[in-house]
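Researcher: Final request for today, and then I'll write up notes for the group meeting. The sequence and the SMILES for zinc ion follow.
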Amino acid sequence: MHCLDCHGQGKTGDAVGVCQSCGAAVCEQHAHLGVRRVRRGPLMGAPLETEVRKVLCSGCTAVQAPVPGTAPV
Ligand SMILES: [Zn+2]
Ligand SMILES: [Zn+2]
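Model: Predicted protein-zinc ion complex:
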């Protein structure tokens, strides 16, 4: 699979990931790694939060300003 952003620039970059917002394949150069928090743990008691990696393409990174404390579904 080739990077969609590279394709738009007339290049072919090997994709290393997939944007979790629009589903475009992105290469290492165009992939923007972020972190989102996932809440897990028992219903009763203290919730545990785990940080998981998320991948966005350049376009989605530009329109999605990170909002602290909210976890996108
Ligand atoms: Zn690329
Ligand atoms: Zn995207």
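Model: The helical segments are 4-8, 58-63. The pocket of zinc ion (ligand 2) is lined by residues 19, 21-22, 24, 56-57, 59-60 (CB under 6 Å).
Researcher: Thanks, that's everything.
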